[in-house]
Write a structure and sequence with these properties.
about 500 residues; alpha+beta; three-stranded antiparallel β-sheet; 16 helices; 19 strands; globular
């Protein structure tokens, strides 16, 4: 499941082992996955089942077991992560709890066997072989390029964070007691065999992780053994437990998890406060004062409930008629600031903050879209030298352009973040994940340096008048700069130069 626990800063400061990590590369084996698009990647992941059938019959409804005996699929799965790689990974300064857990299911309960501080491979090997402990390795996409490649595409496909864990379990052992998760889980068997028992949910589409007792869950609905290349899908809330059977030297499996806190209820919590605030500005009855001492009363609030239900019906009508725009308060920014950066070729250095390197700390760029063309040109030339590597030549008014990394870009309308005495005006933000840091993906709280970079690096701000032009660029393939829906040529040029300097735009 996605892991968002706090990180310790001293692990990176001491020897810089994580920031200077070497990549553990995938063995050169035939790849059965289609990376031509996020949709094709997901389709190839669940082959031979068709994607539409999966979402109609299985997604959030019931488990799916895909048994695949293709040698190429098995070989590729085995190449994603091996037990033998742990020794090398321990050289990267792994820490207990942060990077991995050591645990075992004992008498139906989870026994955590973590030690303190850095992970020593010889001790980890002893815990695995002699104490029959399971090793839960957190977020291996930080180290494995092929998992980065897969999960980056899945984040584009699902539009949410996608985490992963590796579970390594010795024979005749079980790591976790029966439980259910608050995420959609795809389990890919990499090495050995794993025996799974699945049970009817006690909380369908669960919102929280929870253990369940053997007495409560009843008999299994599924009894399955996974072998390399096999895939198992579990909807949120599916109760499950797994063990490595006798005869298998060990089991290595990958869990890919998505859709944590991505329900309609979560979306309503996100957009409703802003929608309510906007509606209050145009509806005087909603600005009228409460009856005196209302919040002091003990209830019942029969009349209050009637009044509030009337407001809610009014809001529902306004929402259905589209009189106010639904604005995300946090879900978009949380996703774009925490997701993986775009996958890069193998010869690109990813240790400096993700796709295009870290922004210089003193080079905050807020484009002034009312500057002259000459001024804007000068600003962009200066900024691009210290912010990003741009691609191709600088765009001009007569050029046709297209938006790069479109799946990593979001256009959102929000109140201005500037602190002034005037009422907050609505502005447009172009948010992107090009500067995200792969080594912190799904690892929870950042250190102070990462927080500072994050506050500066996730987007550009434009006047609300630029919304139509930005949506046009984001929604299409190629656009002549001169035909963008803005009144002034200087605004058109300023817009494309700002995006180009951020590494988001390229001349056709």
């Amino acid at each position: 499941m996605p892991r968002k626990s706090a990180r310790r800063k001293d692990a990176e400061e001491e020897d810089g082992v994580l920031s200077k990590q070497r990549r553990v590369d995938c063995v050169d084996v035939p790849c059965p996955l289609d990376f031509s698009s996020p949709s094709s990647l997901f389709q190839s992941l669940i082959t031979p089942l068709e994607r539409d059938q999966f979402f109609q019959e299985y997604w959030e409804k019931k488990p799916l077991f895909l048994q695949r005996r293709d040698p190429d699929v098995a070989a590729y799965s085995q190449s994603l992560f091996k037990l033998s790689e742990l020794k090398e990974l321990c050289g990267y300064g792994l820490e207990y709890a942060r990077d991995l857990n050591v645990c075992r299911c004992v008498n139906g309960k989870k026994k955590v066997m973590n030690r303190k501080g850095r992970v020593i491979y010889s001790q980890l090997e002893k815990d695995f072989n002699q104490r029959r402990a399971t090793i839960q390795f957190h977020q291996p996409q930080r180290f494995k390029d092929e998992l980065w490649r897969i999960q980056e595409q899945l984040e584009c496909f699902f539009g949410c964070l996608v985490g992963s864990n590796i579970y390594l379990t010795p024979q005749e052992s079980q790591g976790l007691p029966p439980h259910y998760d608050d995420v959609e889980v795809f389990i890919l068997q990499l090495e050995g065999e794993k025996h799974w028992r699945l049970y009817e949910p006690t909380v369908p589409l669960a919102r929280e992780y929870s253990l369940e007792s053997e007495e409560r869950i009843g008999s299994p609905t599924h009894d399955i053994t996974l072998k390399p290349g096999d895939l198992l899908y579990l909807p949120r809330g599916t109760i499950h437990q797994a063990d490595t059977p006798a005869g298998a030297t060990h089991s290595t499996h990958l869990t890919i998890s998505a859709y944590q806190n991505m329900s309609w209820g979560d979306f309503l919590l996100d957009v409703f406060p802003g929608f309510l605030f906007d509606s209050m500005r145009s509806n005087m009855s909603m600005r009228a004062g409460l009856p005196r001492k209302l919040i002091m009363d003990a209830g019942p609030f029969t009349d209050v409930a009637k009044q509030l239900s009337g407001f809610l019906r009014l809001l529902a009508d306004r929402m259905e008629e589209g009189r106010e725009e639904l604005r995300s308060a946090g879900m978009k920014r949380d996703f774009v600031s925490n997701r993986l950066p775009p996958y890069l070729p193998e010869d690109t250095d990813v240790t400096q903050g993700g796709a295009l390197g870290k922004r210089g700390r003193d080079s905050i760029f807020q484009p002034d879209c009312h500057s002259s063309e000459a001024d804007c040109l000068f600003i962009c030339v200066c900024v691009c030298a210290c912010v990003f590597e741009t691609v191709g030549r600088m765009p001009a008014l007569e050029d046709t352009v297209f938006l790069r990394y479109k799946d990593h870009v979001m256009v959102t309308v929000e109140p201005s973040q500037e602190r002034t005495d005037k009422p907050a005006e609505m502005v447009v933000y172009v948010l992107h994940s090009l500067k995200n840091n792969r080594k912190t993906h799904m690892m929870g709280e950042r250190d102070e340096e990462d927080k500072e970079d994050m506050s500066e690096s996730h987007g550009l701000r434009f006047p609300i008048s630029h919304l139509a032009a930005l949506r046009q660029l984001h929604g299409g393939e190629r656009h002549p700069v001169a035909e963008l829906p803005l009144s002034l040529h200087s605004d058109k040029l300023s817009l494309v130069l700002s995006l180009w300097s951020e590494g988001l735009l390229e001349v056709c």
